[in-house]
Specification:
InterPro entries: MIR_dom_sf, MIR_motif, PMT-like. This is Protein O-mannosyl-transferase 2-like. Residues 26-82, 87-143 form the MIR domain. With 197 residues, this protein is mainly beta. The protein has one helix and nine strands; from the N terminus they run E-E-E-E-E-E-E-E-E-H. A hairpin with an 8-residue loop joins strand 8 (107-114) and strand 9.
Amino acid sequence: ITAYTHKDDNNKWLIKKFDSDEDNSVDLVKNGDLIRLEHLQTRRNLHSHKEPAPITKKHYQVTGYGENGLGDANDIWKIEIIDGPDKTHIKTVRTKMRLIHFITGCALHSHSKTLPKWGWEQLEVSCNPYVREKNNLWNIEDHFNEKLPNSSFEVFAPSFLESLRESHAVMVQSNSGLKPKEGEVTSRPWQWPINYR
């Protein structure tokens, strides 16, 4: 399994109950649920086992496994919503979550390490035994289910305070690597909203 920074049909996965292939009813995916993820194009399951990842040897390998959605117990993942109480359901775009491998306890992980030419220089996806790292966080960008009504994307628009917080976080991150020249006037993040300097 690899990752890359643009959207296409290879990014689509079918979320299934861990113990059933039936999709007759609509169930919201909740914190603590056990699921299987089937890649829509290849019909293989997201799978991990205790083999070292190709680049990050301290992590476990993540692969596509099985045929037509059939696999084994290494295809089971647990949903862990960040700062969410038990049985909170996932919300598109807004929910940050971890996918914890049920058998090994590692977390699905991706970072900026690229694979060699055999991996088309895409980003490595691995299963990280250090569960609390920030690159173990995921969200769901799109959700399609013919049994549910369509909703407007406007509901995901950030509030003024969320936009202000995000813009300041981006400024802090981008400015943290800059060093002032001798005699140059600088400002601190708390001074930006009030235009102090």
